[in-house]
Specification:
With 119 residues, this protein is mostly helical. The chain contains four helices and no strands. The longest helix has 38 residues. The chain starts with 27 loop residues before the first helix and ends with a helix.
Length: 119
């Protein structure tokens, strides 16, 4: 049975007018990659949390190390006692402070990555 020439199939080869973005859900990583205002806000929030962590560590460091000249001035002239204060009174808290800072910074980055990862 021959086909009627008026019932021919039309094939469209142009670019579609609308494209679907993924499965229709919101993607924060795209916002960051495209450097939109919302993406800038996400990155800025990470930077602020890292800055808060660094300022907290700096404050504790100043409170810990700042008064040391006054402590050494008030102590009798004994080099062994000064080294003991430095070795056992200052360095262990500094190591703990540094460890806390690294863990907190990594947690901030992990939380940020969890926020922007694809669901």
């Amino acid at each position: 049975m021959p086909q009627d020439p008026t019932e021919r199939r039309v094939v469209v080869t142009g670019v579609p007018r609308r494209t679907r973005r993924g499965s229709g859900y919101y993607r924060p990583r795209t916002e960051i990659d495209e450097q939109t205002t919302l993406g800038h806000t996400y990155v800025r929030s990470l930077m602020r949390s890292q800055l808060r962590t660094a300022l907290a560590v700096f404050t504790v460091l100043v409170l810990l190390v700042g008064p040391m000249p006054l402590v050494f001035l008030a102590m009798p002239d004994s080099a062994g006692l000064e080294w003991a204060v430095l070795g056992f009174g200052i360095y262990p808290p500094l190591v703990l402070l540094a460890r806390w800072h690294v863990r907190r910074a990594e947690r901030n980055e992990r939380d940020f990555a969890r926020l922007v990862e694809d669901r």
